Amino acid sequence: MEQQTSEELKYVSMLHRKTQIFLNERTKALGVSGAEVPFIFIACRMGQLPQYQFCTMLDISKGTVAKVLAGLEQEGYITRSINAEDGRSMDVFPTQKALDLYPKLQEIGCRCMDKMTEPMTEQEREQFFLLLKKSALSISRFVDALQE
Amino acid sequence: MEQQTSEELKYVSMLHRKTQIFLNERTKALGVSGAEVPFIFIACRMGQLPQYQFCTMLDISKGTVAKVLAGLEQEGYITRSINAEDGRSMDVFPTQKALDLYPKLQEIGCRCMDKMTEPMTEQEREQFFLLLKKSALSISRFVDALQE
DNA sequence: ACAAAATAGTTTCCAAAGAAACTATTTTTA
DNA sequence: TAAAAATAGTTTCTTTGGAAACTATTTTGT
User: Fold this and answer.
1) Under 8 Å between Cβ of B13 and A16
2) Beta strands in B13-73 (DSSP E)
3) β-pairing, B49-50 with B78-82?
């Protein structure tokens, strides 16, 4: 019975899908999608940053970043302007609408993590966050290295 | 600086996306997509099972299950037949083509998990799998309970 | 026994995200 | 300094997966 099953991959997918459903359900009423939330977080926390920074901070492709930010600009959560020193680069700024929403979205994010870690002890929770980050960075570095 | 950031959600998404890229790159050469892999695993392990069991075992919607299994049938990895006792239910069987592929896909799955857990000690690895499962089941139960 | 409810699958529509090809700027280098 | 390479963004196409509406079969409750 000790075959290698890699059953854990199922839980990686499950955790992600259910988390997205949780976030979507709660943020929909506020007018944003779950996918937009991390972008609003970064815009609000940074105040001003070039668009390509979203790619590195979230480890998301520039195509996806372009699409999400175009949507957020359309909906009035951010503004963008061409950088003065580099004509290729777009600077991104949060609007007041985004800044007003920010604490509510943070609250939703925390509630999501609470539900994820509900059956854990405080120590397990700390350990889980550590290992989650470790695993994500490890597989990410490996995959990114292949594509060069 | 001790604000609640729910930054861990970023790593949940990252782990999932990079894992999918890893699997897709390796299974593409074998003729299947990363999304099909868990379905082939279950079909091969079970030998015969009703279609709705894929929904419960993978915690994936019946619409998605119907589409993936239709694709796998098309590509010759499974066969399906209406259950003798219940005319609504479809029984799913793996083909020899799937059974031949199975060990290779298992190997790829294991390599993926190896990369994920590469910087971990053996003890951390065990702990990670435990907590990953715990978190996925916890958020899943909560989300599913809401939708009733 | 038959109408209502539940169950199994399918299909359509939509959101999230990567890949690749493209444009437009900068930076390097020969 | 002009051509080549690198960088920043956009657009198009594709894959993955859920939601909801739909069909077709049981199962239940009266």
Assistant:
1) yes
2) 49-50
3) unpaired
Q: How many angstroms separate the CA atoms of B41 and B2, rounded?
A: 44
Q: Is residue B86 within 8 angstroms of chain A, CB to CB?
A: no
Mean pLDDT of A61-68: 97
pLDDT surpasses 90 at A5: no
Nucleotides of C under 7 A from a protein CB: 7-12, 15-21, 24-27
Quote the pLDDT of residue A2: 44
Separation in Å, CA of A84 to nearest CA in chain B: 31
Angle at A147 between CA A40 and CA B126, to 5 degrees: 75
A24 touches strand C (CB under 7 A): yes
CA–chain centroid gap for A52, Å, is 15
Residues of B in contact with A132 (CB under 8 A): 8, 11-12, 15, 128, 132
